[in-house]
Amino acid sequence: MPRELDPTANEKSFILDALNQKLRIDGRDLDSFRELELNFGDDYGLADVRLGKTRVLARVSAEVVKPFADRPFEGIFTITTELGPMASPAFEPGRQTEQEVLLSRLIEKAIRRSNALDTESLCIVAGQKCWQIRADVHFLSHDGALVDASCIAVVAALQHFRRPDVSIEGEKVTIHTMTERVPVPLSILHVPICVTFSFYLDGEVCLIDATLQEEQLRQGDMTITLNKFGELCQISKAGGLAINALNLLRCAKVALVKVGEITATVQRRLEEDAAVRVRRDNLLESKADNERA
Amino acid sequence: MSRYEILSPEGLRTDGRRWNEIRRFSAKMATTTAADGSSYVEHGNTKVICSVNGPIEPRAANARSSERATITVDVCFAAFSGTDRKKRGKGDKYSTRPIKSPNLPTYQGGGGALLMGRAQSKRRVLEMQSALSRTFASTLLTALHPRSEVHISLHILSQDGSILATCVNAATLALVDAGVPMTDYVTACTVASYTNPDESDEPLLDMNSAEEMDLPGITLATVGRSDRISLLQLETKVRLERLEGMLAVGLDGCGKIRQLLDEVVREHGNEMARMGTL
C-alpha cells in the first residue's frame, strides 16, 4: 500500500520550532485560510475550488427518478467522493480507505444531514417522480484541508446549479429543456462551511487550514461545520490530542468569523458569475420567477 | 416536535430523571477469561461488553509501527441489540444489519434506505471504530510497546442511546483490567439540548434513545479529572451559543462517570486482593 511520504526529521523540527514561535512556513497567520479561489464552469453546477495547492472540483447533476418508498414526498440527494491517485500518489483508485470513509461521512453530515438542500422541493409527483441531485466531488490535488475545500466546492456548486423546469398537467409531466424555459435554481436552506483546526505542541498552537505537511505533523484535529447564522451543523473531534474545553469554544467562535468570510466570498463569486452569464446569454428578461404565458 | 414530552413542566424527563442525572450505571471488570482484559457496562438499557487483547504481535502487517503500539478497534452490534418498534427506525443509527423493510424510515436527512442502508451503517461503524482508536491512542502510553498491537473488541448487546460514550467507558475499564499503561481514565457521556417552550435552552445529561432521536446532542470524552476533551461529536444542527452550556454539563457528567468507573476499579482491586490473586 503506498503511503504519503512523512516529513523528514529536519522538516519536522523546523516546522514545529516555527510554530512554537507562532510562525507558519508559508508566512500565514495561525488562523487564516490560504487564498480561496473559486471558479465556475460554463455549465451550471460545476465549481472548482482552490485553497493554495489543494484543488477540488464538484459537479452537480440532476435526473428524474422514483423516490424512495419510505419518503414519497422527498427528492434524493447524494454526495459521492473518491480519492484517486490524481490527488496524491498515496491514494489508490477504487479502494475505500479509512480516510476516504471518514471524509465522505464528514461531508455527508455537514451538508446532507444538516438539510442544506431542501429535498422536499425536489418532489415532482409524490411517490412517482422526483429529482435526484447528485454531487460528485473530485479531488485534483491534495495539499491539506480536503474537507474544508470539498465542502466549499459542494455548497458553491449546489448554489450555482440550475435544474430544468418541470410542468405538470394531470398525469403528464413535461421536463423543459434549458432553451425552452429558464432553468430553476435549487432551494438551498442554509450554507454550511467546514473549518478544520489542527492542534500542535500539546494544544498551545491551533492552526486553521493546515497544509499537507502541517497535517502530517499535527497531534489532533477538529472539524467544525457552521453556517453564517451561527448554527452548528456538525462537530467532529475524533480523538487525538485532548483539548481544553475553553480552547474548543474559542475555536468555535473563530470558526464563525471564518465561515462568514467564506460565505461572503462564495456569494460574491456567484454574483460575479451570474453577471457574466447575463451579459453572455442575454438573460436579463428571462428569469425563472417571471410570469409564465 | 414529538407527541410525548421530553421534559415535563415539573422538570422530569420521560424516564423520571432530572436534567443532570445519569441513568443507572453498573459495570464489571474481568468478565471474560479468554481476553487479557474485559469489562461489561450497563448504562441504563445500553449494554456493552468489551474485551482487550494486547499488547500482542500485530495481526496485520500494516498495523506494525516501529515507534508505538497501534490500537485497533472492532465494534460489533448484536443482531438483537435494537428494537422493532417502528418509531425507532430513525434511531437505528448504529445497526449493522442491512435495512430491508421498505417501510422502515431511515435516519433524518432524507431517504436512502433501500439504496444505501447497508453501506451507510457500515461506514458509520467504521467511523466509530476510528474515533475510538484515535481517542485511546492519545491516552495510552503506546510508545512503551513499539511493534505491537492493542486490540479492543466491543460488542453492543442492547442499544438505548449514548452508545459511543458507553463504548468508551467499557473500553477504559477493559484496558485497566488488561494492564495496558495509560495516563488516566477516558470517560464519556452525552448531553442533549432541550428547547423550553419559552425558547430558552436546557442541557440534559445522558441521552436515552428517545431523546437522541428528538434532540440535538453531543458526545464528549474527557481525560481524567481535567476538562480536556479528547472526543467531541455533534451530528445535528444546534445554535452555537448552546454549545457552552452543553459542554459544561458534559464535563460535569464525565466527572461523575469517572468516579463511578474509579469505584468499579477499586472494588475489583479489593476483590482480587481478598482472593489472593494480587
From TrEMBL, chain A:
Pfam families (alphabetical): RNase_PH (PF01138), RNase_PH_C (PF03725)
Tree of life domain: Eukaryota
Annotated localization: Cytoplasm; Nucleus, Nucleolus
Record-annotated membrane-spanning stretches: none
Record has RNA-binding as a keyword: yes
Entry's Gene Ontology cellular component terms: cytoplasmic exosome (RNase complex); nuclear exosome (RNase complex); nucleolus
UniProt KW keywords: Cytoplasm, Exosome, Nucleus, RNA-binding, rRNA processing
Alphabetized GO MF terms: mRNA 3'-UTR AU-rich region binding
Domain Exoribonuclease phosphorolytic as annotated: residue spans: 33-164, 190-256
GO biological process annotation, one example: TRAMP-dependent tRNA surveillance pathway
InterPro entries in UniProt: ExoRNase_PH_dom1 (IPR001247), ExoRNase_PH_dom2 (IPR015847), ExoRNase_PH_dom2_sf (IPR036345), Exosome_comp_Rrp42_subfam (IPR050590), PNPase/RNase_PH_dom_sf (IPR027408), Ribosomal_Su5_D2-typ_SF (IPR020568), Rrp45 (IPR033100)
Presence of the UniProt keyword Cytoplasm in the record: yes
Family of this protein: Belongs to the RNase PH family.
PANTHER family associated with the record: EXOSOME COMPLEX COMPONENT RRP45, EXOSOME COMPLEX EXONUCLEASE RIBOSOMAL RNA PROCESSING PROTEIN
Protein name per its UniProtKB record: Exosome complex component RRP45
Lineage, broadest ranks: Eukaryota, Fungi, Dikarya, Ascomycota, Pezizomycotina
Automatic annotation (TrEMBL), chain B:
Region Disordered: start-end pairs: 84-103
Domain called Exoribonuclease phosphorolytic: residue spans: 21-181
Domain of life assignment: Eukaryota
InterPro entries referenced in this protein's UniProt entry, alphabetically: ExoRNase_PH_dom1, ExoRNase_PH_dom2_sf, PNPase/RNase_PH_dom_sf, Ribosomal_Su5_D2-typ_SF, RNase_PH
Xref: CDD domains: RNase_PH_RRP41
Signal peptide feature range: none
GO molecular-function term, one example from the UniProt record: RNA binding
GO biological process: nuclear mRNA surveillance; poly(A)-dependent snoRNA 3'-end processing; rRNA catabolic process; U4 snRNA 3'-end processing
GO cellular component: cytoplasmic exosome (RNase complex); nuclear exosome (RNase complex); nucleolus
One Pfam family linked to the record: RNase_PH
The family this protein is said to belong to: Belongs to the RNase PH family.
Protein name, entry field: Exoribonuclease phosphorolytic domain-containing protein
Organism, as annotated: Tuber aestivum (summer truffle)
